[in-house]
């Protein structure tokens, strides 16, 4: 499991992951914050349902996807922690976005 | 050819799947054939299959520059429907739809035909009147067609935004329930396998560089894999019809344009049908994998590059997001382009030419896929008998001389 | 939706992009820099502008902090810098991007792709399991958040593998083992290139110091491991391998595995633009064709940095400056004499910095079997979960290359757009069909270079998107 060997990033804020409150550092990388909080796995694949976690941490592998503030398939390794951020783990294929258009 | 059946699946399961044979051979070209089809896409392979099956022409070959199904067959959005306005169009597309309905059985190959229904939207009163007229015409031709109002549209496809205050409000739609989609690779592979079993040589990586003629009659082909003698050459090369015809000096009334399509990330099932909008010129369906497949309109300029610019489709995407608000945050993963051959009347050419033994099937615009079996069936008849049958007759080149056009562009106002 | 125009649009704010933008601004060009990350620096100087601690600075070392002057020069250069901006299309008209500011289109006379390198995909059994990541990923977690994992096993080879291991040792983490997969014969193949490498002796000395530091720490380094596999149910639990010729299967329990097989250019953007590319046999990867200044086969497109060919951070910076000079010259803003005079010293320094490359390329060339895994069940395409066996079946049926393979298997059609499988699929098809990697080719890539929302393509503003 990952541990923090120093404490550099900004003030500690709360974010919500699947209804669970976790501590994160304001402005740090979201995937890193989720790893530090031992969130596991990040998602399951649409193809076989296999569990996945970040692999590249630099935006190329698309294995760290999650629903961030209601938007599915966000690359958490390219997201920055904001206070009150809501993260949901994404299992299988994503559902379509909020359905508040139309009649 | 091994038959695919429950028995063969169980047998191979027990044998560890070691007994399957390749679905088609990989032959070298023979020195001569009774007929050679240029182009190993859906239409070309279907033509070969029906030539062998119905007309008993088994000493024939399909030559393909790349791999089978790798051209426009592999680039289209596989929308199947037959609700065209004019009798001639309805006849050929309905002929095709009837063949689609039994094709998995006929080919012993699952083409994944899904009759999920096709909606054609009307966004203004004029379009609504045209669509209503088309529904009547369809019914007279025995083509299933219904006209739906906004409420019924919403019931049939709940994710469509039917509110009246958007840029392209949905005020009505036609529905063809027998329409739908199928699987492009499976169709090509199914026809290839069945044609191969009848003795047809399917020759891939074989580019035609010259069509040989003597005194206005075809005598053979020069290809990247050697010369082939034949008295009948049938060109089925969507996107390059004019290029092939140009080899024998035949000029066709065809313009070639880039056409684009996009595919989204996979999504849980959300779009139950095919939705087409003519005013915006977009069409959208959801694949078995869950990806949304979105086809766009053609670029205004003519080009042989197999790509269009995404700038061109910006307004179409803006409109589709209005029609389907839940798609606005949907990520598009891939985009590609193909080249479509368009005739002035937006109808195809299935015809003999001034060169004896040189036949052309092309000019299907953006909508040739749906015609694949009907086109192959009619074209095979033309190649075998050197005369068009009743279905192909309205689509010969003579119409551009007589003026007897099948003007689907203006009449049907559909996204072809 | 933002619309603006500029002389030079730079994609990527790593050393190449930052240097190019600084140089271009100094030459009077209007430069716009778009980068996916929240701050400048690229991967090498990741999070350098974020809050740091003395302890972390000590662990990351002077090479990391050496990026600060470059970053400072860039931020004060006057270039229009847009962070969190994902470029999804480039063309002769400019670039389109999606981002926190609503995204937009930027018209540009020249586009410079400085998108950097990525770690070479290293497919082995179990590499998709949670707990398995690249060594570079582990380093980014250390740089950005000070995260460490104890009892990790490092598997692979290459300078970065040893650099991260050294940083782990210095930070006080316990490393379970380093399993070096380099072919022992590679040392002898590399030896003829050592004299040239020694001309730039800093590299070699640094490397030797790293190896000594790891040895002193008592970390177990295993050589001669073959057929490495990762095991575990819902998370990696062990590494197993064949040791030497004896055939004895070894097993080491662990909770983390960090993989590395060197770095390759991330080719997607230049390939999607249809610039000419060539297969680089020495580095076993595809690289964009370019001249000394980074001009590609397309008149509007330049490429610099590791994304245009692996050379490291210093070369990236120099190549960025050269590309900016070329853009200025070609746009008529720098006369031929000044262009030549300014270019010459940069080109000389690139030559000097590249001296150790042939030695490093051969020393750390992936051993046979790592580019193209042998085990049928190994996943090649992580997105579509396509295994080597499926690719082999398709090749046996006559599938000639990666593009037709998409029809057979869907490999390369997932969200990563082939980045994680392109090189290994090429290697597998090459091996099975007996054709060279150059002949087999690569996926035909197209825009969008990254998945982009319909709303972004449609050019809707952020506010409109919120409404819908």
TrEMBL record, chain A:
Gene3D superfamilies: 2Fe-2S iron-sulphur cluster binding domain, sarcosine oxidase, alpha subunit, N-terminal domain. The keyword Oxidoreductase applies. It comes from the Bacteria. InterPro entries: 2Fe-2S-bd_N (IPR042204), 2Fe-2S_ferredoxin-like_sf (IPR036010). GO terms for molecular function: iron-sulfur cluster binding; oxidoreductase activity. The keyword Iron does not apply. Keywords: Oxidoreductase. This is (2Fe-2S)-binding protein. It comes from Rhodobium orientis.
TrEMBL record, chain B:
GO terms for cellular component: cytoplasm. Pfam families: DAO. InterPro entries: FAD-dep_OxRdtase, FAD/NAD-bd_sf, SoxB. It comes from Rhodobium orientis. It is found in: Cytoplasm. GO terms for molecular function: nucleotide binding; sarcosine oxidase activity. Its main location: cytoplasm. Residues 34-382 form the FAD dependent oxidoreductase domain. It comes from the Bacteria. Keywords: Cytoplasm, Nucleotide-binding, Oxidoreductase. GO terms for biological process: tetrahydrofolate metabolic process. This is Sarcosine oxidase subunit beta. NCBIfam families: soxB (TIGR01373).
Automatic annotation (TrEMBL), chain C:
Pfam families: Pyr_redox_2 (PF07992), SO_alpha_A3 (PF17806). Residues 7-317 form the FAD/NAD(P)-binding domain. SUPFAM superfamilies: FAD/NAD(P)-binding domain. Signal peptide: none annotated. GO terms for molecular function: oxidoreductase activity. InterPro entries: BFD-like_2Fe2S-bd_dom_sf, FAD/NAD-bd_sf, FAD/NAD-binding_dom, Metab_Enz_Cyan_OpOx_G3PDH, Opine_Oxase_asu/HCN_bsu, SoxA_A3. Keywords: Oxidoreductase. This is FAD/NAD(P)-binding oxidoreductase. It comes from Rhodobium orientis.
């Amino acid at each position: 499991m990952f541990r923090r060997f120093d404490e550099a990033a900004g003030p500690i804020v709360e974010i919500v992951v699947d209804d669970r409150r976790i501590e994160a550092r304001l402005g740090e990388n979201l995937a890193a914050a989720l790893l530090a909080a031992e969130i596991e796995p990040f998602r399951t694949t649409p193809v076989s349902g296999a569990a996945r976690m970040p692999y590249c941490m630099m935006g190329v592998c698309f294995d760290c996807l999650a629903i961030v503030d209601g938007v599915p398939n966000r690359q958490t390794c390219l997201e920055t922690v904001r206070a009150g951020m809501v993260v949901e783990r994404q299992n299988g294929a994503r559902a379509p976005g909020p359905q508040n258009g139309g009649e | 050819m091994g038959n695919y059946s429950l028995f063969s699946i169980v047998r191979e399961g027990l044998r560890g799947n070691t007994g399957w044979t390749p679905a088609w051979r990989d032959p070298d070209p023979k020195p001569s054939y009774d007929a050679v089809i240029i182009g190993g896409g859906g239409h070309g392979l279907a033509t070969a299959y029906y030539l062998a099956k119905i007309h008993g022409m088994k000493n024939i070959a399909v030559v393909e520059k790349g791999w089978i199904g790798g051209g426009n067959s592999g680039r289209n959005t596989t929308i199947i429907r037959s609700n065209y306005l004019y009798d001639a169009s309805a006849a050929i597309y309905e002929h095709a739809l009837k063949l689609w309905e039994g094709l998995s059985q006929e080919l012993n190959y699952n083409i994944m035909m899904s009759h999920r229904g096709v909606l054609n939207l009307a966004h203004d009163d004029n379009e609504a009147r045209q669509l209503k007229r088309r529904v009547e015409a369809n019914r007279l031709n025995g083509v299933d067609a219904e006209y739906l109002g906004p409420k019924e549209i919403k019931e049939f496809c709940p994710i469509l935004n039917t509110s009246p205050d958007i840029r392209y409000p949905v005020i009505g739609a036609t529905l063809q329930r027998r329409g739908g989609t199928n699987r492009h690779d499976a169709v090509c592979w199914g026809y290839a396998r069945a044609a191969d079993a009848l003795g047809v040589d399917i020759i891939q990586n074989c580019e035609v560089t010259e069509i040989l003629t003597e005194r206005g009659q075809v005598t053979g082909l020069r290809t990247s894999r050697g010369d082939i003698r034949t008295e009948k050459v049938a060109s089925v090369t969507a996107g390059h019809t004019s290029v092939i015809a140009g080899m024998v000096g035949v000029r066709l009334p065809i313009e070639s344009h880039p056409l684009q399509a996009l595919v989204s990330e996979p999504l849980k099932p959300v779009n139950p049908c095919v939705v087409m909008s003519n005013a915006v010129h977009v069409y959208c369906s959801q694949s078995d994998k869950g990806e949304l497949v979105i086809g766009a309109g053609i670029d205004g300029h003519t080009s042989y590059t197999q790509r269009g610019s995404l700038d061109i489709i910006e307004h179409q995407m803006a409109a589709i997001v209005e029609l389907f608000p839940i798609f606005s945050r949907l990520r598009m993963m891939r985009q590609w382009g193909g080249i479509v051959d368009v005739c002035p009347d937006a109808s195809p050419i299935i015809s003999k030419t001034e060169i004896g033994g040189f036949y052309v099937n092309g000019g299907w615009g953006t909508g040739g896929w749906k015609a694949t079996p009907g086109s192959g069936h009619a074209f095979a008849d033309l190649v075998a008998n050197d005369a068009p049958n009743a279905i192909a007759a309205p689509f010969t080149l003579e119409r551009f001389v007589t003026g007897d056009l099948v003007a689907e562009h203006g009449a049907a106002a559909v996204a072809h | 939706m933002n619309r603006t125009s500029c002389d030079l649009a730079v994609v990527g704010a790593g050393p190449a992009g930052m240097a190019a933008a600084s140089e271009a601004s100094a030459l009077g060009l209007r430069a716009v820099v778009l980068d996916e990350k929240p701050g400048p620096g690229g991967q090498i100087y990741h999070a350098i502008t974020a809050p740091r601690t003395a302890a972390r600075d000590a662990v990351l070392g002077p090479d990391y902090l050496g990026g600060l002057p470059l970053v400072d020069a860039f931020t004060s250069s006057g270039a229009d810098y847009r962070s969190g901006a994902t470029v999804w299309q480039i063309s002769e008209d400019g670039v389109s991007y999606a981002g926190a500011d609503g995204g937009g289109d930027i018209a540009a006379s020249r586009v410079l792709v400085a998108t950097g390198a990525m770690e070479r995909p290293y497919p082995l059994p179990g590499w998709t399991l949670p707990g398995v990541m690249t060594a570079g990923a582990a380093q980014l977690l250390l740089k950005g958040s000070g995260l460490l994992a104890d009892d990790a096993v490092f598997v692979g080879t290459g300078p970065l593998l040893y650099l991260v291991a050294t940083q782990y040792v210095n930070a006080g983490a316990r490393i379970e083992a380093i399993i070096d997969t380099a072919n022992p014969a590679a040392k002898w193949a590399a030896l003829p290139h050592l004299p040239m490498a020694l001309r730039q002796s800093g590299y070699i000395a640094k490397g030797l110091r790293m190896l000594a530091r790891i040895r002193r720490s008592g970390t177990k380094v295993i050589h001669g491991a073959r057929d490495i596999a990762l095991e575990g149910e819902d998370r990696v639990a062990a590494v197993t391998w064949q040791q030497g010729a004896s055939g004895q299967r070894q097993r080491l329990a662990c909770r983390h595995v960090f993989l590395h097989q060197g770095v390759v250019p991330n080719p997607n953007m230049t390939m999607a633009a249809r610039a000419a590319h060539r297969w680089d046999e020495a580095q076993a990867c595809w690289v964009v064709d370019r001249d000394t200044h980074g001009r590609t086969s397309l008149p509007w497109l330049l490429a610099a940095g590791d994304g245009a060919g692996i050379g490291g951070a210093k070369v990236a910076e120099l190549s960025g400056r050269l590309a900016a000079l070329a853009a200025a010259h070609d746009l008529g803003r720098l006369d031929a004499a000044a262009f030549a005079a300014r270019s010459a010293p940069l080109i000389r320094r690139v030559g000097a910095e590249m001296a150790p490359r042939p030695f490093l390329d051969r020393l750390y060339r992936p051993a046979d079997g790592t580019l193209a895994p042998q085990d049928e069940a190994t996943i090649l395409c992580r997105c579509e979960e396509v295994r080597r066996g499926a690719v082999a079946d398709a090749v046996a049926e006559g599938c000639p290359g990666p593009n037709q393979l998409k029809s057979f298997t869907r490999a390369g059609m997932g969200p990563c757009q082939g980045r994680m499988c392109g090189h290994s699929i090429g290697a597998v098809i090459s091996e099975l069909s007996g054709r060279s990697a150059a002949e087999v080719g690569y996926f035909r890539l197209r825009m969008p270079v990254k998945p982009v929302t319909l709303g972004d393509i449609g050019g809707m503003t952020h506010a409109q998107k919120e409404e819908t």
